[in-house]
Specification:
Layout (H helix, E strand, L loop, with lengths): L28 H16 L7 E2 L2 H9 L3 E7 L3 E6 L4 H5 L10 E5 L3 H17 L6 E5 L4 H24 L18 E3 L16 H15 L2 H4 L8 E5 L6 H12 L3 E5 L10 H15 L3 E6 L2 H4 L12 H16 L6 E7 L15 E6 L5 H11 L11 H6 L6 H17 L7 H13 L10 H20 L6 E5 L9 E4 L9 H22 L7 H16 L29 H28 L1 H14 L1 E3 H8 L7 H16 L6 H8 L1
Helix pairs in contact: 6-8, 9-11, 12-14, 14-15, 16-17, 16-20, 17-18, 17-19, 18-19, 20-21
Length: about 675
């Protein structure tokens, strides 16, 4: 929360904000009204109110009767005549005294024609020994034109300057003179609703690593008295949605210190030098509030490795911002009490100078939650949701492998929306399952019309996936198969991926075989190929190339990896291997995919009856679950690793409360 915009809350200096004073002239309406009045006045009162308009016939009569003293003719078809003093009453009547300038105006038919007429009049007056009428020709005065040319540009410049100085434009900070100030959100230590470690579910390993930072901020003398130096910075690395920002806020809340938060993109601006200036101002504020925490979210926006782009013109501003950040991290004292936390999900693209000792000394990996951590996260997000007795947190945690904390929050919210849409009084288990399906596969499109032939092809395709994945040891266990279109997919199968730390070649081959089983079933039993296998083929091809070129699992070229973890080949115009090696790689990938396709067809041929029965059941019911597959194909030959871990955990928890265990045995179990 930005304390600069909140009344009665702690401000950046730790005090209390006063009620904001109203600025004089904050409303520009009176300026617009004044300008409008001036323009209208110049238009309506550009002619003197003492002048009188007459017709051209009347003017001719006045000229012939020797009433007019002089004439001024303008190039816009108008003329101004001055009446003789002795003839004022003839023209103005009883109002003659009000017309002191004795001026009348008239519209003439044309300058040349009127000049010809006056020449004849003056000749006749000369013959009669009368004084000729004085005639002058002048350019007209267009007041609107003069205002537009001479006044309006200055008015526009004035308003532009006011607009820039007030910071009306976005990205101007608090004004053009404050454009170099850091726009950090300040969370003060006196804030009531601050975040602590109790509000962060899971992330036990990451919380354990940052506890030392919290301890230093609470009691710095404990470390400095022994000559120790606390790390200046810690980098939170992990996939999106895993809670990196929340963990940083919890560190500040636990340490009870001010917390300055900025995004990496906030440093980059259209003006040259603004990023470096904002970095300097951010560290200046931090030193004033010491001890405190600086948090830079998405630091890869300014922390990318320098000199990787051959065309360097567009990166000069970003690189100068990074250079200033590196300088500031070395500029303040070691024990000044300012600690920098940063978060990114692209640590591989960061500049090596950021990660060296003395800057971001530690990299704290915030990984996707495991089973136990997902249970804790569900417990947090289920608090405000009204659920019924069918909801089991353990079951939900098992059904959401690979979900981040943000994904789990989305599941809970989506389940509540689905329950409300179906007029349920509470959110049930089926609502959560529908929410998981909605997030993974997309919205069901039951209105999409398919022919019987298309429906049969999709059923055989999905049944192929289900059959092969059920019979392979390392393939992901099946949860549900459907031929109801979801999103852009015409059919979908849900699996329960095993949470492995290391994936072997056998694991990858089994997954590849199960992915190809859909296309294999079409070729084997329907003797046709369709476009529905596009996503399967794309995944298999990428996985095969990764096995050969990244993981070194090729038969003809083993133990070779062309993976660029540092991103050094981003600017290159050639591959890090020769064309001959590329040809070998392409052949190995093709052979690997062909081998797994042949293996999938063989498994399907051996289990033809079960596959056909499953496909017909899909056509009839449109959705089948693992229970249906188990009834058709029998129990899965191998127990999944995740099921084994769950059983071991349940047995361990049961053992903790074993009443027959001795005190020594119970101590061993608890440890």
């Amino acid at each position: 929360m930005n304390n600069r915009q909140q009344d009665g809350r702690p401000n950046e200096q730790g005090g209390r904000n006063r009620q904001p004073k109203k600025r004089m002239g904050g409303n520009y309406a009176w300026i617009y009204l004044a300008i409008l009045a001036i323009l209208l006045g110049s238009y309506f009162f550009s002619e003197s109110p003492e002048r009188k308009d007459v017709s051209y016939t009347q003017l001719q009569s006045y000229i012939e009767n020797d009433v007019i003293e002089s004439l001024v003719v303008y190039d816009n078809g108008t003329a101004k005549a001055v009446v003789q003093e002795s003839q004022k009453t003839v023209v103005f009547g009883s109002n003659a005294e009000q017309h002191k300038d004795r001026t009348i105006t008239v519209s003439i038919p044309g300058t040349e024609e009127f000049n010809k007429y006056m020449t004849e009049v003056n000749l006749s007056r000369k013959e009669a020994d009368k004084k000729a009428i004085d005639i002058q020709f002048e350019k007209s005065h267009d007041w609107w034109y003069l205002i537009l040319v001479n006044v309006l540009p200055f008015v526009l410049i004035l308003f532009f300057f006011i607009w820039m100085s007030r910071g009306i434009g976005s990205g101007m900070g608090n004004g053009i003179f404050n454009v170099g100030k850091a726009k950090a959100d300040v969370f003060d230590k006196d804030k009531k609703d601050k975040v602590t470690f109790k509000d962060v579910a899971g992330l036990e390993g990451a919380k354990q690593e940052v506890e030392e930072i919290v301890s230093f901020l609470k009691n710095p003398k404990k470390y400095t008295a022994l000559g120790g130096k606390i790390p200046k910075g810690a980098l939170l690395v992990g996939p999106p949605g895993t809670g990196k920002t929340l963990l940083a806020k919890a560190v500040a809340g636990e340490a009870n210190v001010p917390f300055l938060s900025m995004s990496g993109s906030d440093f980059v601006e259209m003006f040259v030098g603004v990023g470096a200036s904002r970095v300097r101002d951010l560290f200046r504020q931090a030193k004033e509030k010491s001890p405190c925490i600086i948090f830079i979210d998405e630091i890869d926006a300014v922390g990318r490795a320098r000199g990787k782009n051959v065309i360097s013109g567009g990166n000069d501003e970003r690189e100068s911002t990074l250079n200033q950040l590196l300088t500031e991290m070395d500029g303040f004292g070691t024990n000044s009490g300012v600690i920098i936390l940063a978060a990114t999900n692209r640590a591989d693209v960061l500049d090596s100078a950021l990660l060296r000792a003395g800057r971001f000394d530690r990299q704290i990996h915030v990984e996707l939650p495991d089973l136990q951590e997902r249970k804790e996260i569900f417990g947090v997000h289920l608090r405000p949701i009204k659920t019924d007795s069918t909801v089991d947190v353990n079951f939900l945690a098992k059904q959401t492998p690979g979900f981040s904390g943000a994904d789990i929050a989305n599941v809970c919210n989506e389940a509540a929306l689905i329950a409300a849409r179906n007029n349920h009084k509470a959110v049930g288990k089926q609502d959560f399952m529908d929410a998981v399906d909605r997030i993974i596969g997309g919205l069901e499109r039951k209105t999409k019309i398919m022919t019987d032939e298309e429906k049969r092809a999709i059923a055989y395709h999905e049944a192929g996936h289900a059959t092969v994945s059920w019979l392979l040891r390392y393939a992901n266990p099946l949860v549900k198969v459907t031929i109801v279109p979801r999103g852009v997919a015409l059919g979908a199968a849900w699996y329960l991926p095993e949470e492995r730390q290391i994936t072997n070649r056998e694991h990858l081959l089994d997954e590849m075989c199960a992915t190809l089983a859909g296309r294999a079933a079409e070729e084997q039993f329907l003797h046709q190929t369709g476009t529905g296998a596009l996503n399967d083929l794309e995944r298999v091809t990428k996985q095969a190339y990764a096995m050969i070129s990244y993981y070194g699992m090729g038969k003809s070229m083993p133990n070779l990896s062309y993976y660029d973890s540092q991103g050094r080949y981003d600017y290159g115009f050639q591959k890090p291997y020769s064309e001959k090696t590329a040809e070998k790689m392409d052949k190995e990938v093709a052979d690997l995919i062909a081998e797994q396709m042949k293996r999938a067809k063989q498994i399907l041929e051996e289990n033809k009856e079960g596959h056909h029965q499953m496909a017909e059941l899909l056509i009839e019911k449109e959705v089948i679950t693992s229970e249906d597959v188990e009834r058709i194909l029998g129990p899965r030959p191998w127990k999944s690793r995740q099921d084994s871990i769950i059983e071991d955990n349940e047995a361990l928890l049961a053992g903790k409360s074993d009443p027959e265990a001795t005190e020594e045995e119970q101590s061993d179990i608890n440890s």
